Amino acid sequence: MILDLDIGNTLSKWRLKDAESSEIRSRGAVWTREEWRPGADIPNLDVVEAVRISSVARAAVLEETVALLRRQVRQVYVARSTPEALGVVNGYEEPGRLGVDRWLGALAGYQLAGGCCAVDCGSAITIDFVLPGGVHLGGFIVPGLRLMKESLKLGTRNVAIDPESEADALLEPGRRTVDAVNHGIYMAAVSAINRIYSEVCDQQGVALPVLLTGGDARVISRGVQVPHAVWPDMVYGGLEASFPLTFAERAGKMSGAPGVPEPVSLEKIRAGLAFSMLL
Ligand SMILES: Nc1ncnc2c1ncn2[C@@H]1O[C@H](COP(=O)(O)OP(=O)(O)OP(=O)(O)O)[C@@H](O)[C@H]1O
Ligand SMILES: CC(C)(CO)[C@@H](O)C(=O)NCCC(=O)O
Ligand SMILES: [K+]
């Protein structure tokens, strides 16, 4: 079995992948914390022959995790943001400072779709752009839905947006605090994504396929106007592409990869931008 680990600021997500059949056998998530000890929520390491890790947690968390895993698992691979990988050139002035989850998302998106706009809706919402030739432009970081809500301190932090909500309902003015907050932060997130996507495609003169991932991807997806695909395993896809272990991975296949969404034309994107500014 291969253990893939995505250590985020809030949640540490894992999945177990069968090295022979490439099937995903199980998944889970635990709170990210200093002491990451195998327990009820952590897979049995006896069956694990290789681990691949993406971590944006504090260095101490990663060090502890790696030290612990090395005692039981022979192969431990830790992803890093590099100046260049798999045909993608990192757009950061200091490439190592780009969050490795963003880098892996960009690599997976490029491998799947060529150029792309990769959006990760987690603790933060990150929006990264890769041009068809592999140039990563950099991106945008916006507070995620939960962080926006907590920062308001209006006593509504524990009332999450119902992930089954229809986008239309979330666009109505709220008539109680909890709705005003939930609809407000939802609008803030989806308007940012829609506008940033249009602006960058306009600047670059290219309509890019949009890929969404992260804990809030499904609910945010309903408010994103342009065609897009939700890819819950996008960061894992970057791990597979960076450290291919199975036969399928060596052939460039990433588990759970969606079909490539066909972007609307650049003309339509530009018309939408002009309309939104009442030009
Ligand atoms: N069971 C859950 N526990 C916590 N957050 C959840 C859960 N399910 C969905 N979410 C939502 O997912 C978001 C967390 O995103 P994600 O699962 O991508 O993890 P993350 O650790 O925050 O990611 P990162 O720190 O890498 O950005 C939260 O903002 C929250 O609204
Ligand atoms: C922005 C987050 C928190 C998103 O998970 C992560 O990618 C991160 O810690 N990045 C480092 C800062 C940067 O990417 O510029
Ligand atoms: K994430």
From TrEMBL:
The broad enzyme category this protein falls into is transferase
Q: Any idea which positions bind ATP?
A: D6, I7, G8, N9, T10, L11, S12, K13, S123
EC number(s) for this protein?
2.7.1.33
Protein name stated in the entry? Type III pantothenate kinase
What organism is this sequence from? Vreelandella venusta
A GO molecular function held by the record: ATP binding
Keywords of the record: ATP-binding, Coenzyme A biosynthesis, Cytoplasm, Kinase, Metal-binding, Nucleotide-binding, Potassium, Transferase
Bound how, and how many: what does the cofactor note say?
Answer: A monovalent cation. Ammonium or potassium.
A Gene Ontology CC term for this entry?
cytoplasm
Function, in words: Catalyzes the phosphorylation of pantothenate (Pan), the first step in CoA biosynthesis.
Q: Which GO BP terms apply? A: coenzyme A biosynthetic process
- InterPro entries attached to this UniProt entry: ATPase_NBD, Type_III_PanK
Q: Where does substrate bind?
A: Y92, G99, V100, D101, R102, T177
Give the residues the record marks as binding K(+). Answer: D120
State the compartments where it is located.
Answer: Cytoplasm
The biological pathway it contributes to is:
Cofactor biosynthesis; coenzyme A biosynthesis; CoA from (R)-pantothenate: step 1/5
Protein family according to the UniProt entry? Belongs to the type III pantothenate kinase family.
Query: What PANTHER family does this protein's entry cite?
Result: TYPE III PANTOTHENATE KINASE
Per its record, the protein catalyses: (R)-pantothenate + ATP = (R)-4'-phosphopantothenate + ADP + H(+)
Q: Name one Pfam family in it.
A: Pan_kinase
Q: Which residues form the active site?
A: D101 (proton acceptor)
Swiss-Prot/TrEMBL cofactor(s) = K(+); NH4(+)
Subunit details: Homodimer.
